[in-house]
Write a structure and sequence with these properties.
This protein has 126 residues and is α/β, with parallel strands linked by helices. The protein has two helices and eight strands; from the N terminus they run βαββββαβββ. It has helices at 13-26, 76-88; strands spanning 5-9, 30-34, 38-42, 49-53, 68-72, 92-99, 105-110, 116-121. The protein is globular and about 50 Å long. The chain starts with a strand and ends in a 5-residue tail after the last strand.
């Protein structure tokens, strides 16, 4: 069964929107909904959408330890652009762009609320 969406909790919807607007723009994605408690984005070619929301229970949002959302990029240049956009819009680096031991190219980062993500691609063939 395909994944429909992933949602991250946020403590600052405006700050999170600034971050996700920037990284989703690198994929050609757009906001698909927004209201006073949540915002969502979709990719132009489908796949799971991304949302941020204030937690329903009213408690502060916190990150899931060991949780990560991976975004497949079109190539190494896109991985670098997504990582740069993340850092320029309030994210933090968890691993710079580069080849990884298991054969793919990736960059790791956290959103402003500490949720871990990566942008990756498979090796480019000559």
């Amino acid at each position: 069964m395909p994944v429909a969406h992933v949602t991250f909790g946020t403590n600052d919807l405006e700050r999170g929107a600034h971050f996700y607007d920037a990284i989703m723009a690198e994929f050609g994605g757009d906001r698909t909904f927004a209201h006073d408690k949540a915002i969502g984005w979709s990719f132009p070619d489908g796949g799971p959408s991304i949302g941020i929301t204030y937690p329903f229970d009213g408690e502060p949002a916190n990150r899931g330890n060991g949780t990560m959302f991976a975004l497949m990029a079109a190539g190494e240049d896109m991985v670098r652009r997504v990582h740069a956009a993340a850092l320029a819009h309030g994210g933090s680096c968890e691993g710079p762009p580069g080849p990884r031991a298991n054969g793919f190219y990736a960059a790791y980062f956290r959103d402003p609320d500490g949720n871990k993500m990566n942008a990756f691609c498979m090796p480019e063939t000559p």
